[in-house]
Write a structure and sequence with these properties.
Length: 281
């Protein structure tokens, strides 16, 4: 595994790989790696000859008062895990390397960026689009791999690629879960012992909602009931049942739907979703 801090050095390495007709996959991360990240790496290795993992805690996707300064930094363990997966290149750029001209950005992520998490974190997706676009510009990957837990982010990145005619194929990996169903996340480290015991109720309630819809119950009734159940244990930011292809409202012809939610539990903010096909549509 080669480690690069400078874009120019990484680009020189990747140019030599491309000269040998090798394809490149990028897995962008902010570190704090867990088994969910490693599944992204495995996916990348299955579709490309060369895998680049980036670790960069991106300041532009954090709002004032969020956890930018306290975001878990576990580089030694991250390096160990990636060496164990035999990736080709680890890119650990500085802020100045990513943003040599400053962090100002006028990225427009469209209406989708204003929904759901975007309503509670107004600058978040603009920052995500900014850093992903910059990483694509540096690495010029054939593929880039993202997790489906951050489903809204995944759709926004796909939209970024389409709207800017970028020559990169976006691939995704299903949400990886702990044995009790909790979606894996670096921020799960913020959960204390008692809240960690309570956290799996989040996914459990979403699963009950999915089963109820599959059994033919009214979506509005299921949503109302699930909001009530979630509210008994968490502070609910949002719970929606939407078209999984574009996060629009469901119509009678909508087949692929998503139950998507964000809650707060103590100092932690958790997001999760379930995508499934509505029966008889």
């Amino acid at each position: 595994m080669k480690i690069f801090k400078r874009s120019v050095d990484l680009q020189f390495f990747l140019d030599s790989c491309r000269n040998d007709n090798k394809t490149v996959a990028l897995v962008p991360t902010m570190g704090g790696l867990h088994p969910g990240h490693l599944r992204l790496v495995e996916k990348a290795q299955s579709i490309a000859d060369i895998v680049v993992v980036s670790i960069f805690v991106n300041p532009t996707q954090f709002a004032t008062g969020e956890d930018f300064n306290s975001y878990p930094k576990t580089f030694s363990n991250d390096k160990f895990l990636l060496e164990g997966r035999s990736i080709d290149a680890l890119f650990i750029p500085s802020k100045n390397e990513i943003y040599p001209n400053g962090t100002f950005s006028n990225f427009d992520v469209g209406q989708m960026g204003e929904l759901l998490c975007g309503a509670f974190r107004p600058s978040h997706f603009k920052g995500v689009a900014q850093v992903v676009n910059r990483l694509f510009d540096i690495v010029k990957p054939n593929y880039s791999v993202f997790g489906e837990k951050d489903y809204q982010q995944l759709l926004i990145i796909k939209s970024l690629v389409e709207n800017n005619n970028l020559n990169v194929s976006i691939k995704s990996v299903p949400t990886q879960r702990e044995d009790d169903g909790l979606a894996m996340s670096t921020r799960n480290k913020y959960l204390g012992t008692e809240n960690r015991k309570k956290a799996p109720l989040f996914y459990r309630q979403l699963s009950y909602a999915k089963a109820s819809i599959e059994q033919g119950e009214s979506i509005e009734l299921v949503k109302k009931k699930t909001l009530s159940e979630l509210g008994a244990n968490f502070e609910v930011e949002y719970l929606e049942v939407l078209n999984a292809n574009n996060l629009s409202q469901i119509t009678t012809n909508t087949a692929e739907i998503i139950i998507i939610s964000a809650i707060r539990l103590g100092e932690s903010r958790l997001i999760d979703n379930i995508v499934f096909r509505r029966p008889n549509v």
